[in-house]
Design a protein that fits this description.
Elements (H helix, E strand, L loop, with lengths): L3 H25 L12 H13 L14 H16 L5 H19 L5 H10 L1 H9 L1 H13 L1 H13 L9 H4 L3 H14 L9
Helix pairs in contact: 1-3, 2-3, 4-5, 6-7
């Protein structure tokens, strides 16, 4: 187990690196096509920063927590941010643009990288993939992107339940469980298959 002083050294190094990345994301958010980069890894980092250092804090590199256990937890938050796909422009481009292009070619959709990144960051794709498999995950995500009326209805329903989102932020803020279940159920019914048949 690392000593407290060793953890502080590690913390300072990682915090400086993460803060530099936050600054780059802030600058990137002013570039055309990247206006929403603050919605994903950046937003999670800001939430963590405020939990650790108060509502006015904007960076990780502040006074380290007083105990080794808390310091390890803060280091873990920093490492999660640094590992996030949406914490760099390169990651966004390589992962989301390429995947969006692949889905568009396969399903005839018109995802842009931001749409697909929202679906991934929300957890919808991972949940579908783990529960139903890769092909079903892609099919349902593509269906959701095509069926704008269904998405708008889900947004309205979510708003009536006091989930504070806007239609433009729907892909990143909405709790997708309700959409996923309904979309899967509808698609399976069209094929004459019960969701129980998949289990």
């Amino acid at each position: 187990m690392a000593s407290y002083n060793d953890l502080v050294k590690k913390y300072r190094k990682l915090a400086k690196r993460a803060d530099q990345r936050l600054v780059r994301l802030e600058a990137l958010s002013y570039e055309k096509g990247y206006e929403y980069v603050r919605d994903w890894a950046y937003a999670t980092a800001m939430r963590d920063i405020k939990i650790w250092s108060g509502p006015d804090a904007k960076r990780f590199n502040t006074k380290p927590p007083e105990t080794a256990a808390k310091l390890e937890r803060k280091i873990a938050d920093i490492e999660n941010f640094l590992a996030s796909k949406t914490s760099t422009k390169k990651g966004i481009t390589e992962i989301y643009e390429n995947r969006a292009k692949s889905i568009n070619e396969r399903f005839g959709t018109d995802f842009n990288w931001r749409d697909f990144a929202n679906a991934i960051e929300s957890g919808v794709y991972e949940k579908l993939n783990s529960d139903y498999g890769y092909n079903t995950a892609l099919t349902v995500v593509a269906k959701m992107q095509r069926d704008k009326k269904q998405l708008e209805a889900a947004v309205k329903e979510a708003n009536t339940k006091n989930i504070k989102i806007s239609q433009t932020d729907a892909m990143s803020k909405l709790d997708y469980d309700m959409i996923i279940k309904q979309t899967i159920s509808n698609e399976l019914q069209k094929q004459g298959v019960s969701i129980l048949d998949l289990k």
